[in-house]
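Lest this sound abstract, we let one protein speak, letters for residues, whole numbers for local backbone shapes, and leave readers to judge:
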Amino acid sequence: MSRLPNWLEPAFPYVKRAHRFATRRVGAITRAPAAGRHAQPGAGGSHAPPRARSFAARSDERDPRPRLPHVGTASVDETVRLDPAADVRLLAPARPAPRTEPTGHWFWRGLGDYEEPRRFLLSIEDGLVVGDYAAHVTPGGVLDYETSEYYGVDGWREHPIYLRARMPQVTDVDGSLLSLATRGTGGNYFHFVTDLLPRWGVFTEALERGLVDRVPDHLLLSRGSRYQEQFLDKLGLSHVSTVPPLRDRAWRAEQLLVPSMTNPDTMMPPWSTQWLARTFPPSAAASTLPSRIYITRGSARNTRRLVNEDEIFSILSRHGFVRIDCGALSVQEQIDHFAAASVIVAPHGAALTNLNFCSPGVRILELFAPRYLNKCFWAIASNIPSSTYAHLVGTSARTVREGNPMGGVQDDITIPVAEFTAALEALLDSEEQQ
């Protein structure tokens, strides 16, 4: 979740606030307008990036490919095209509220409605993609924030591209480049699965609708880890040319294709879960796997491990649970285990990304440390028909401040046995009553 070493994790909230403050202050200088065909956002380039959602609203409804305005001038940037793939819509009032212990926990107040991002494909002639966070910039120097969002910031002015004194080295790419990478997708299983892979889904949707006529020449993404290679293989993309998003490199493509981000706020729209489940189905082996599983995070300190795991698992084992280490499994084995499970218990961690592959009616109990709560897996669970999501917040010797869910990103988790037993029994009772 953060790039700090474990021993510095307690400082994460302060470092993040300092990062946002610095970006606003430094950016006030680096965003100053400058001339040049490739005006550089980090070196005097353009200004407020327009949001793609607003492009369509200002465009002639008869034009299926509205133009992107060049912010700061009266001209129109003729190099950028937006191809809408679906309409913006407001989700129904409310995803099911989680079962929470303690009851009425402050973190869950106000979660419910949200605007599901529209799916679209940007096409930028001679476009730039900058840095390992994959910021997309037009030839006129406009950052498109909607396809370049960064976690933990409040709007485009806090994007880390504006901390750069100058643009990194620019390397030209022949042909078309499809940018799938975004923040965190280089080495984080959650972001790779929920942010990067659905962007391929958006592109294939555009391909099926005839908005583009062929697979691009190159893909922008990180690869090399086992799970990345396995997912690419399942998509039939193992042999496609790839370009890595690098911190100190900008790539300029003759045609830069940028699918919209479907999960910018980790609220995981139903479309993304449905696409993942449809695209990566379980194998026949799933029918032989256990229906009740506990997902371990191991025993290393400061990794959100469950400190009293042996004590908790002794209770789980009496109810037929099997302990699973997702880090030791292939992608297909993880998919199969989650598809087969009817009840899942786990401390908060990236392995729960596999909830996207669960079957209808699954029951989930997520365990949190009190200084770090996250809505992302509740959001995924709410996309699964007839599912039940519950969570349990453990104890901490440190001060817990209400309203600060990121205070201990890597805190280990301790769950009182009596509270766990009650929560588990309630979850199992709901399964039997179904």
Summary: The radius of gyration is 22 Å. The chain has nine helices and 16 strands. Confidence is low (pLDDT under 50) at residues 32-78, 87-93.
